[in-house]
Specification:
CATH class of the largest domain: Mainly Alpha
Number of helices: 18
Distance between the termini: 62 Å
CATH architecture of the largest domain: Alpha Horseshoe
Number of strands: 4
Radius of gyration: 28 Å
Shape: elongated
Length: 341
């Protein structure tokens, strides 16, 4: 806006130049040839960066775009006019530029054109949160479930960024809620990991499977508890998440809640009928971990919830009561992986 002050350039003209020069900056080639001279895209963008040069540069850009730029498309060149338009649709998705998107679609750019990594315009707009662009792409038939090389799709990237309006729009257009990426993460797992509660609730409303696991057997609930995220954990439990799930490291939601010394989370898990005596791979129970921490209030809470004080840790052959007597002076340490050394 400041650059337009005192200039005869209209905002539409400025936006046109900005879109053109931004596209040039993203062209995947080291240089462009115009009128027999090497043209540095960055230099061109710099010349357009001040109001006094904008108007003078417009004819040059227009001429290049409509006439002389075809020199680049010669057999020895690196870029074609359709390729420029394809760059334009990706750029429009990134910037949220509806006018540029309309132009690209009018030029019959494939709505599902993707980058070398498999990112479509819909994925880019979903990540950046440009709802109007997302809506227009969907209306024009963009693949709502199209995945990139790592298995990410528009719903996943929108969930990761917490773009709840985009998530809602994608779901309305039939996005498959339980698709998983190469690492096994679904949109719900991603949103739970990031703590985007509104997105979590929206996905659950569309029947996302609450106990899907990634390769380490972590569930959405385990990830929420690991992050000490009581709000997300509570939402997942109300949706029927299994409180006794266990990952490959022996971590359970209750063990993680005790490790964080989060009494509120422990109470929520107890109300969900968690197994208070479930041990990790090393035979460590929640009560043992609590005793190691020397937390008398948490110990009472677990005992009142029917925690068994007579359980023995298989690796060390000790009772919970022994650990409680020794407390922090016992030399035991605790960590979120459920080990005791």
């Amino acid at each position: 806006t400041a650059q337009l002050e005192g200039s005869t350039l209209t905002r539409a003209q400025y936006n046109t130049i900005h879109s053109l020069t931004s596209s040039f900056l993203r062209i995947p080639t080291s240089d462009l040839v115009y009128d027999g001279h090497t043209l540095n895209p960055l230099s061109l963008h710099w010349h357009c960066s001040t109001a006094e040069n904008l108007f003078g540069t417009l004819p040059l850009l227009t001429e290049m775009a409509m006439t002389q730029i075809r020199n680049i498309a010669l057999p020895s060149g690196k870029l074609t006019i359709p390729q420029l338009n394809e760059i334009g649709i990706l750029n429009a998705a990134w910037d949220g530029d509806v006018d540029a998107l309309d132009f690209a679609l009018k030029e019959q750019v494939p709505v599902d054109y993707v980058t070398t990594d498999g990112w479509s315009s819909l994925m880019i707009a979903s990540e950046t949160g440009h709802v109007e662009v997302v809506d227009k792409l969907l209306v024009h038939g963009a693949g709502v479930d199209l995945q990139n090389k790592n298995g990410w799709n528009p719903l996943m990237v929108a969930s990761q960024e917490g773009n709840v309006e985009v998530v809602d729009k994608l779901l309305q257009h039939g996005a498959t809620v339980d698709l998983q990426n190469a690492g096994g993460r679904s949109s719900l797992i991603i949103a739970s990991l990031k703590g985007h509660v509104e997105v979590v609730e929206k996905l659950l409303q569309h029947r996302a499977t609450v106990d899907l696991t990634i390769k380490s057997n972590d569930t959405s609930l385990i990830l929420a508890c690991r992050n000490n995220d009581l709000t997300t954990a509570s939402v997942l439990l109300r949706a029927g998440a299994c409180p006794n799930c266990c990952n490959n490291y022996g971590q359970t939601p209750l063990l993680l809640a005790v490790w964080h010394e989060n009494q509120a989370m422990v109470r929520v898990l107890v109300q969900a009928n968690v197994d208070v005596n479930q041990m990790d791979q090393g035979g460590l129970s929640p009560l043992m971990m609590c005793c190691v921490q020397g937390d008398s209030e948490m110990t009472k809470l677990l005992l009142d919830s029917q925690a068994n004080p007579n359980l023995q840790q298989s690796e060390y052959w000790i009772h919970s009561s022994d650990v409680c007597l020794q407390g922090r002076s016992s030399g035991y340490s605790h960590d979120p992986h459920g080990t005791c050394s």
